[in-house]
Protein backbone atom coordinates (compact mmCIF):
# COMPACT_ATOMS: atom_id res chain seq x y z
CA UNK A 1 0.00 0.00 0.00
CA UNK A 2 1.32 3.43 -0.97
CA UNK A 3 0.46 6.79 0.56
CA UNK A 4 -0.94 7.89 -2.77
CA UNK A 5 -3.42 5.00 -2.65
CA UNK A 6 -4.96 6.59 0.43
CA UNK A 7 -5.15 9.96 -1.33
CA UNK A 8 -6.90 8.33 -4.30
CA UNK A 9 -9.27 6.48 -1.96
CA UNK A 10 -10.10 9.68 -0.05
CA UNK A 11 -10.82 11.58 -3.27
CA UNK A 12 -13.11 8.85 -4.62
CA UNK A 13 -14.91 8.77 -1.27
CA UNK A 14 -15.42 12.54 -1.34
CA UNK A 15 -16.51 12.69 -4.98
CA UNK A 16 -18.54 9.47 -5.01
CA UNK A 17 -17.25 8.78 -8.50
CA UNK A 18 -14.11 7.29 -10.01
CA UNK A 19 -14.38 9.53 -13.06
CA UNK A 20 -14.68 12.73 -11.00
CA UNK A 21 -11.80 11.66 -8.77
CA UNK A 22 -9.67 10.95 -11.85
CA UNK A 23 -10.34 14.45 -13.20
CA UNK A 24 -9.47 16.09 -9.88
CA UNK A 25 -6.26 14.08 -9.51
CA UNK A 26 -5.33 14.34 -13.20
CA UNK A 27 -5.17 10.54 -13.51
CA UNK A 28 -6.65 8.26 -16.12
CA UNK A 29 -9.82 6.62 -14.88
CA UNK A 30 -8.47 3.09 -15.28
CA UNK A 31 -5.55 3.91 -12.95
CA UNK A 32 -7.91 5.13 -10.22
CA UNK A 33 -10.06 2.02 -10.58
CA UNK A 34 -6.99 -0.24 -10.42
CA UNK A 35 -5.64 1.45 -7.28
CA UNK A 36 -9.01 1.13 -5.49
CA UNK A 37 -9.23 -2.57 -6.41
CA UNK A 38 -5.64 -3.12 -5.24
CA UNK A 39 -6.41 -1.40 -1.94
CA UNK A 40 -9.47 -3.60 -1.43
CA UNK A 41 -7.37 -6.66 -2.23
CA UNK A 42 -4.67 -5.72 0.29
CA UNK A 43 -7.21 -5.01 3.03
CA UNK A 44 -9.25 -8.10 2.06
CA UNK A 45 -12.54 -6.22 2.10
CA UNK A 46 -14.78 -4.21 -0.19
CA UNK A 47 -14.68 -0.50 0.60
CA UNK A 48 -17.47 0.84 -1.61
CA UNK A 49 -21.00 0.01 -2.62
CA UNK A 50 -21.22 0.42 -6.39
CA UNK A 51 -24.33 1.72 -8.13
CA UNK A 52 -25.26 3.20 -11.52
CA UNK A 53 -24.50 6.79 -10.52
CA UNK A 54 -21.21 6.10 -8.79
CA UNK A 55 -20.12 4.61 -5.50
CA UNK A 56 -20.53 5.26 -1.80
CA UNK A 57 -18.52 4.08 1.19
CA UNK A 58 -19.70 1.00 3.00
CA UNK A 59 -19.06 0.44 6.71
CA UNK A 60 -15.48 -0.76 6.15
CA UNK A 61 -14.79 2.15 3.81
CA UNK A 62 -15.98 4.63 6.42
CA UNK A 63 -13.57 3.06 8.93
CA UNK A 64 -10.68 3.37 6.49
CA UNK A 65 -11.55 6.99 5.68
CA UNK A 66 -10.98 7.97 9.31
CA UNK A 67 -7.46 6.50 9.21
CA UNK A 68 -6.74 7.87 5.74
CA UNK A 69 -7.67 11.43 6.68
CA UNK A 70 -5.49 11.36 9.79
CA UNK A 71 -2.50 9.78 7.99
CA UNK A 72 -2.68 12.23 5.07
CA UNK A 73 -3.11 15.19 7.42
CA UNK A 74 -0.02 14.15 9.40
CA UNK A 75 1.97 13.65 6.20
CA UNK A 76 1.00 17.09 4.87
CA UNK A 77 1.82 18.58 8.26
CA UNK A 78 5.25 16.94 8.16
CA UNK A 79 6.00 18.60 4.82
CA UNK A 80 4.86 22.00 6.06
CA UNK A 81 7.01 21.63 9.18
CA UNK A 82 10.16 21.95 7.10
CA UNK A 83 9.19 25.19 5.45
CA UNK A 84 11.41 28.18 6.09
CA UNK A 85 10.23 30.20 9.07
CA UNK A 86 11.43 33.35 7.30
CA UNK A 87 9.21 32.78 4.27
CA UNK A 88 5.88 31.10 5.13
CA UNK A 89 4.22 29.58 2.09
CA UNK A 90 1.63 27.04 1.06
CA UNK A 91 -2.09 26.86 1.80
CA UNK A 92 -3.81 27.75 5.05
CA UNK A 93 -7.18 26.03 5.43
CA UNK A 94 -9.17 28.31 7.71
CA UNK A 95 -12.79 28.04 8.79
CA UNK A 96 -14.99 31.05 9.55
CA UNK A 97 -18.50 31.76 10.75
CA UNK A 98 -20.25 33.72 8.04
CA UNK A 99 -21.04 36.78 10.15
CA UNK A 100 -17.38 37.56 10.90
CA UNK A 101 -17.03 40.84 9.02
CA UNK A 102 -13.60 41.82 10.40
CA UNK A 103 -11.73 39.00 8.63
CA UNK A 104 -10.89 40.94 5.40
CA UNK A 105 -8.83 43.44 7.37
CA UNK A 106 -6.86 40.68 9.06
CA UNK A 107 -6.29 38.84 5.79
CA UNK A 108 -5.21 41.90 3.84
CA UNK A 109 -2.41 42.66 6.30
CA UNK A 110 -1.24 39.06 6.37
CA UNK A 111 -1.32 38.57 2.59
CA UNK A 112 0.66 41.77 2.12
CA UNK A 113 3.38 40.45 4.44
CA UNK A 114 3.38 36.86 3.14
CA UNK A 115 2.43 36.80 -0.56
CA UNK A 116 3.42 33.14 -0.93
CA UNK A 117 0.62 31.98 1.36
CA UNK A 118 -2.74 31.08 -0.16
CA UNK A 119 -5.97 30.85 1.81
CA UNK A 120 -8.73 28.30 1.53
CA UNK A 121 -11.68 29.71 3.48
CA UNK A 122 -14.46 27.40 4.59
CA UNK A 123 -17.71 28.93 5.86
CA UNK A 124 -19.82 27.02 8.37
CA UNK A 125 -21.44 26.96 11.77
CA UNK A 126 -19.27 26.73 14.86
CA UNK A 127 -20.06 23.11 15.70
CA UNK A 128 -19.09 21.85 12.25
CA UNK A 129 -15.94 23.99 12.09
CA UNK A 130 -14.82 22.60 15.45
CA UNK A 131 -15.25 19.06 14.12
CA UNK A 132 -13.31 19.94 10.97
CA UNK A 133 -10.38 21.22 13.06
CA UNK A 134 -10.55 18.11 15.23
CA UNK A 135 -10.51 15.88 12.13
CA UNK A 136 -7.51 17.71 10.57
CA UNK A 137 -9.65 19.10 7.74
CA UNK A 138 -8.84 22.67 8.78
CA UNK A 139 -5.64 24.21 10.13
CA UNK A 140 -7.71 26.49 12.34
CA UNK A 141 -11.05 28.25 12.53
CA UNK A 142 -12.80 31.34 13.82
CA UNK A 143 -15.80 30.12 15.84
CA UNK A 144 -18.14 31.35 18.51
CA UNK A 145 -16.74 30.80 21.98
CA UNK A 146 -16.19 29.68 24.56
CA UNK A 147 -14.57 26.44 23.41
CA UNK A 148 -13.40 24.04 26.11
CA UNK A 149 -11.84 20.88 24.71
CA UNK A 150 -8.71 19.04 25.87
CA UNK A 151 -7.30 18.87 22.33
CA UNK A 152 -8.16 22.42 21.27
CA UNK A 153 -6.23 25.66 21.83
CA UNK A 154 -8.65 28.59 21.77
CA UNK A 155 -7.72 32.28 21.87
CA UNK A 156 -10.34 34.99 22.13
CA UNK A 157 -10.23 37.48 19.27
CA UNK A 158 -13.04 39.86 20.17
CA UNK A 159 -16.47 40.18 21.78
CA UNK A 160 -19.59 41.74 20.34
CA UNK A 161 -23.26 42.27 21.02
CA UNK A 162 -26.03 40.00 19.73
CA UNK A 163 -29.33 41.63 18.75
CA UNK A 164 -32.68 40.59 17.35
CA UNK A 165 -33.24 41.88 13.83
CA UNK A 166 -36.63 42.47 12.23
CA UNK A 167 -38.21 44.68 9.60
CA UNK A 168 -40.90 45.75 12.06
CA UNK A 169 -40.49 49.10 13.80
CA UNK A 170 -42.03 47.68 16.98
CA UNK A 171 -41.25 44.42 18.74
CA UNK A 172 -41.73 42.41 21.91
CA UNK A 173 -40.28 38.96 22.63
CA UNK A 174 -43.82 37.52 22.44
CA UNK A 175 -43.83 38.37 18.71
CA UNK A 176 -41.89 35.16 18.04
CA UNK A 177 -45.09 33.24 18.80
CA UNK A 178 -46.64 34.58 15.59
CA UNK A 179 -43.63 35.49 13.43
CA UNK A 180 -41.17 32.93 11.96
CA UNK A 181 -37.61 32.76 13.25
CA UNK A 182 -35.04 32.74 10.46
CA UNK A 183 -31.96 30.89 11.69
CA UNK A 184 -28.87 28.96 10.66
CA UNK A 185 -29.00 25.18 10.83
CA UNK A 186 -28.39 23.36 14.12
CA UNK A 187 -24.86 23.88 15.41
CA UNK A 188 -25.00 27.69 15.18
CA UNK A 189 -24.07 29.28 18.52
CA UNK A 190 -26.27 32.33 17.89
CA UNK A 191 -29.25 30.04 17.43
CA UNK A 192 -28.40 28.17 20.64
CA UNK A 193 -28.38 31.44 22.59
CA UNK A 194 -31.74 32.53 21.20
CA UNK A 195 -33.34 29.15 21.85
CA UNK A 196 -31.94 29.16 25.41
CA UNK A 197 -33.43 32.60 26.04
CA UNK A 198 -36.84 31.57 24.67
CA UNK A 199 -36.88 28.42 26.82
CA UNK A 200 -36.07 30.53 29.87
CA UNK A 201 -38.98 32.83 29.03
CA UNK A 202 -41.31 29.87 28.39
CA UNK A 203 -41.92 31.01 24.81
CA UNK A 204 -42.49 28.55 21.96
CA UNK A 205 -41.68 29.95 18.49
CA UNK A 206 -44.46 29.78 15.92
CA UNK A 207 -42.11 28.49 13.24
CA UNK A 208 -38.36 28.09 12.63
CA UNK A 209 -37.07 28.41 9.09
CA UNK A 210 -33.50 27.12 8.56
CA UNK A 211 -31.06 28.66 6.09
CA UNK A 212 -27.52 27.88 5.00
CA UNK A 213 -26.23 31.42 4.42
CA UNK A 214 -26.40 34.70 6.31
CA UNK A 215 -27.11 36.58 3.08
CA UNK A 216 -30.30 34.58 2.60
CA UNK A 217 -31.35 35.04 6.22
CA UNK A 218 -30.87 38.80 6.29
CA UNK A 219 -32.43 39.18 2.84
CA UNK A 220 -35.52 37.38 4.13
CA UNK A 221 -35.61 39.63 7.20
CA UNK A 222 -35.50 42.78 5.06
CA UNK A 223 -38.37 41.31 3.03
CA UNK A 224 -40.43 41.07 6.21
CA UNK A 225 -40.56 37.27 6.33
CA UNK A 226 -39.34 36.87 9.90
CA UNK A 227 -36.94 37.63 12.75
CA UNK A 228 -33.32 36.61 13.27
CA UNK A 229 -30.48 36.97 15.77
CA UNK A 230 -27.09 38.30 14.66
CA UNK A 231 -24.01 40.23 15.80
CA UNK A 232 -24.80 43.93 15.70
CA UNK A 233 -21.68 44.64 13.64
CA UNK A 234 -22.92 42.42 10.79
CA UNK A 235 -26.16 44.40 10.26
CA UNK A 236 -25.24 47.91 11.46
CA UNK A 237 -25.25 49.27 7.90
CA UNK A 238 -28.81 48.00 7.36
CA UNK A 239 -29.92 49.54 10.65
CA UNK A 240 -28.38 52.89 9.66
CA UNK A 241 -30.19 52.72 6.31
CA UNK A 242 -33.51 51.99 8.03
CA UNK A 243 -33.97 48.67 6.25
CA UNK A 244 -34.18 46.71 9.50
CA UNK A 245 -34.62 47.45 13.18
CA UNK A 246 -32.63 46.10 16.12
CA UNK A 247 -33.93 45.01 19.51
CA UNK A 248 -31.93 43.92 22.58
CA UNK A 249 -31.36 40.35 23.67
CA UNK A 250 -31.51 39.40 27.36
CA UNK A 251 -28.24 40.31 29.09
CA UNK A 252 -27.62 36.64 29.89
CA UNK A 253 -27.43 35.81 26.19
CA UNK A 254 -26.49 39.06 24.44
CA UNK A 255 -22.68 38.83 24.34
CA UNK A 256 -20.80 36.56 21.98
CA UNK A 257 -17.08 36.00 21.66
CA UNK A 258 -15.19 34.96 18.56
CA UNK A 259 -12.20 32.69 19.19
CA UNK A 260 -9.53 31.25 16.93
CA UNK A 261 -9.00 27.54 17.47
CA UNK A 262 -6.41 24.96 16.40
CA UNK A 263 -5.35 21.54 17.63
CA UNK A 264 -2.96 21.56 20.59
CA UNK A 265 -1.19 18.41 19.42
CA UNK A 266 -0.49 19.63 15.88
CA UNK A 267 2.86 21.16 15.06
CA UNK A 268 2.55 24.90 14.49
CA UNK A 269 3.95 25.41 11.01
CA UNK A 270 5.62 28.70 10.21
CA UNK A 271 2.59 29.59 8.10
CA UNK A 272 0.06 29.03 10.87
CA UNK A 273 2.36 30.54 13.51
CA UNK A 274 2.77 33.72 11.45
CA UNK A 275 -1.02 33.89 10.99
CA UNK A 276 -1.60 33.65 14.74
CA UNK A 277 1.02 36.35 15.25
CA UNK A 278 -0.88 38.57 12.79
CA UNK A 279 -4.08 38.00 14.77
CA UNK A 280 -2.28 39.22 17.88
CA UNK A 281 -0.97 42.32 16.09
CA UNK A 282 -4.38 43.07 14.59
CA UNK A 283 -6.04 42.78 17.99
CA UNK A 284 -3.39 45.03 19.54
CA UNK A 285 -4.04 47.70 16.92
CA UNK A 286 -7.79 47.58 17.54
CA UNK A 287 -7.58 47.53 21.30
CA UNK A 288 -4.84 50.11 21.79
CA UNK A 289 -6.07 52.33 24.58
CA UNK A 290 -9.04 50.09 25.53
CA UNK A 291 -9.46 48.18 28.77
CA UNK A 292 -8.24 44.75 27.73
CA UNK A 293 -6.97 42.61 30.58
CA UNK A 294 -3.78 40.62 30.55
CA UNK A 295 -3.06 38.66 27.40
CA UNK A 296 -6.69 38.58 26.21
CA UNK A 297 -7.10 39.14 22.48
CA UNK A 298 -9.92 41.30 21.22
CA UNK A 299 -12.16 44.17 22.05
CA UNK A 300 -15.29 44.77 23.98
TrEMBL record:
> What Pfam families is this protein classified in?
HTH_1 (PF00126), LysR_substrate (PF03466)
Name the CDD domains on file: PBP2_YofA_SoxR_like (cd08442)
Q: What is its EC number?
A: 1.6.5.3
Query: What InterPro entries does UniProt report for this protein, alphabetically?
Result: LysR_HTH_N, LysR_subst-bd, WH-like_DNA-bd_sf, WH_DNA-bd_sf
Q: Which GO terms describe its molecular function?
A: DNA-binding transcription factor activity; oxidoreductase activity; transcription cis-regulatory region binding
Q: Which UniProt keywords apply?
A: DNA-binding, Oxidoreductase, Transcription, Transcription regulation
Top EC class per UniProt?
oxidoreductase
Cited Gene3D superfamilies: 3.40.190.290, Winged helix-like DNA-binding domain superfamily/Winged helix DNA-binding domain
HTH lysR-type domain location is 1-58
Q: Give the family, as the similarity comment puts it.
A: Belongs to the LysR transcriptional regulatory family.
PANTHER family according to UniProt = HTH-TYPE TRANSCRIPTIONAL REGULATOR, HTH-TYPE TRANSCRIPTIONAL REGULATOR GLTR
Task: From the Swiss-Prot or TrEMBL record, give the protein name.
Answer: LysR family transcriptional regulator
